[in-house]
Amino acid sequence: MGSKTHIFFVKLVHHFLFDPETRLAICKDAKATSFPFPGVFLWENFISEEEEKTLISLMDQDAWNLSQSGRRKQDFGPKVNFKKRKVRVGSFSGLPALSQELVIRMQQEPNLAGFQPVEQCNLDYHPQRGSAIDPHLDDSWLWGERLVTINMLSNTTLTMSLDQGLPEMGLGEEVRVAVHLPRRSLVVLYGEARHMWKHAIHREDVQERRVCSTYRELSAEFLPGGQQAELGAQLLNIALSFQGAPI
Fold first, then answer.
1. Alpha-carbon distance 210 to 188, whole Å?
2. Which of 135, 200, 206, 245 has the fewest beta carbons closer than 10 A?
3. All residues at 6 or more sequence positions from 44 whose CB lies less than 8 Å from its CB, including other chains
4. Which stretches are annotated as coiled coil (predicted)?
5. 205: exposed, middle or buried (C-beta count within 10 Å: 0-12, 13-18, 19+)?
6. What whole-number distance in Å separates Cα of residue 189 and Cα of residue 192?
7. What 8-state DSSP symbol labels residue 224?
8. DSSP 3-state helix, strand, coil percentages of the chain (rounded to 5)?
C-alpha cells in the first residue's frame, strides 16, 4: 500500500482591533503596523438602561419572523427586489413610533447631520439558535452612505474584513478589524468601512441575547435631483410618519 500525503493549507488572517479614540486599527500581536481606519463612528450609551428596557419590551410585543443563520427579524421598510432593482411601497406604513425620538437624537451628531432613515430592521440574535451574520456589504443602489445600528442587551463584536488584504502594507492576505460594540451603543458605518470592508457578526461573538436596530437612508438616485426622487420622497414621507407596523 502506498502512503498518501495530505497537504493542508491554513488560511492566513491578519487580526486588528479598532480603537475608537484614535480611530486606528491596532495589530493584536504587534507584528504589523497600526493603520488609520476611517468610516466607523461609535457613540457609547446612546440609549439609557430604561430606554433599552422599554424598546425591547415594545419590540417583543410584535411578532419576530425567523430569518437566516439563526436570526429573527422585524422589518419596517419598502418592498424591495435587489436583483431586479425594483422598489415599491407594498405594505410599508412607516418606521415604528418608538424610533422618532431616537432619530431626532441621532441627527444632533455632526456625523449624522441630515440623516433621514427610510428603513428599519430589528434583528434578534441568540446563542441557542447559533445566530450570526456572514461577511457582507450592504446594497448601495437603494441604501445611502450611512448605516446606523443600535446594539442592545449585550456587548458584541462587529468584524470588518477585507478579503484581498492591504498589499501596500505588506498584508497580502485577508485582514480583519474587530470593532467592539458595547451594549446600548450606536455605530455608524460610512465611506470605506461601508463600501469596501465587509461586516459580520460571528457566532462566537453572540454570548447572550442581542437585539439590534439598523437604520438605512436613501441613495442619491432616490433623493432630490436623482432619477427616482419622486418615489424617494414618497417613501420618506411614509417612513417619517412613525406610524409603522412590521411588514
1. 18
2. 245
3. 182, 184, 185
4. none
5. buried
6. 8
7. T
8. 20, 35, 45
Distance CA 63, CA 109 (A): 32
What beta strand segments (E) does 53-197 contain? 65-66, 72-76, 79-81, 86-88, 117-125, 133-136, 143-152, 156-162, 174-181, 186-189
pLDDT band at 28 (very low <50, low <70, confident <90, very high): confident
Contact of 122 with 55, CB cutoff 8 Å = no
Distance CA 15, CA 238 (A): 42
CA distance 30 to 151: 29
Residue showing cell 445566530: 131
For residues 174 and 162, is the Cβ–Cβ distance under 8 A?
Answer: yes
Least confident of 14-23, 227-236, 238-247: 238-247
Cell 418592498 found at: 79
Q: Which residues of 95-120 are buried (b: 16+ CB within 10 A; e: fewer)?
A: bbebbeebbeebeeeeebeebebbbb
> Given pLDDT bands bounded at 50, 70 and 90, which one contains residue 200?
very high
Write out pLDDT tens, residues 62-92. Answer: 999 999 999 999 999 999 999 998 999 888 9
CA dihedral 93, 72, 147, 46 (to 10 degrees): 90
**Span 112-154, pLDDT tens digits:** 999 999 999 999 999 999 999 999 999 999 999 999 999 999 9
